[in-house]
Amino acid sequence: MMRNLKAFGALAMFLCLIISANGQGKATFPVQKGLVVDAENDLDLETVAQLIKLVDTHKAKAADQIAVVTVTDYAPFKTLNEYAKELSNNWKLGNNSVTFAFSQKKSDVKIYVAPGLQTKLSDVIVQKIIQEKILPKFREGNVDQALINGVMEVIRLLEAK
User: Fold this and answer.
1) What is the phi/psi pair of residue 59, to 5°?
2) Closest Cα to residue 154, out of 81, 103, 99?
3) Is residue 111 classed exposed, middle or buried when 0-12, 13-18 and 19+ CB atoms within 10 A define those classes?
């Protein structure tokens, strides 16, 4: 009897692990309709249009891309930065790209810089952009201006000679 209980317990644990692993599954990313996707519906239409104009104008001048995405959740990833990196890969943005990821629901913002641009946009510089250009406007409740400020600063740094 005890042997059967141990076997049953081991089987139950095994099944829980399988279900847990399957529950984490694949990430779902918003459909890429362009380089600006407001999946969380946080931004005004005017802001989306301005961000599109900024990233498209930059893309016409440079070989790199900037994407901006808002999301309600970034599961199964533990961090928004991991999500932004995988989104960049999923959208095939390339080695010379920057991905802004924002979740108002989770009060989180990250800037993922692909390896090809990390000499121009180091982790220290990215944190400074978040701290000085983005977070002050977020704290004021102005998500739109926060993202515009961040994108404009990244473009300024990328286009600097």
Assistant:
1) -60, -35
2) 99
3) buried
Q: What is the pLDDT of residues 53-95, one digit of tens each?
A: 999 999 999 989 999 999 999 999 999 999 999 999 999 999 9
Q: Token pair for residue 7? A: 């076997």
Class of domain 36-159: alpha beta
The two three-digit tokens of residue 108, written as one number: 């989180």
* Structure confidence at residue 55 (pLDDT): 97
pLDDT of the residue at 25:
56
Tokens encoding 95:
């080695």
Cis check: omega of the bond before 76, within 30 degrees of 0:
yes
**Six-digit token string for 123:** 């982790």
- The ranges assigned to domains in the chain are 36-159
Q: Are 145 and 46 in contact (CB under 8 A)?
A: no
Give CA–CA dist 77/86, Å, rounded. 9
Residue 129 exposed, middle or buried by CB count within 10 Å (0-12, 13-18, 19+):
buried
Taking the C-alpha atoms of residue 33 and residue 86, their distance in angstroms, rounded to an integer, is 17
What pTM does this model have?
0.82
SS3 helix, strand, coil % of the chain, rounded to 5? 55, 15, 30
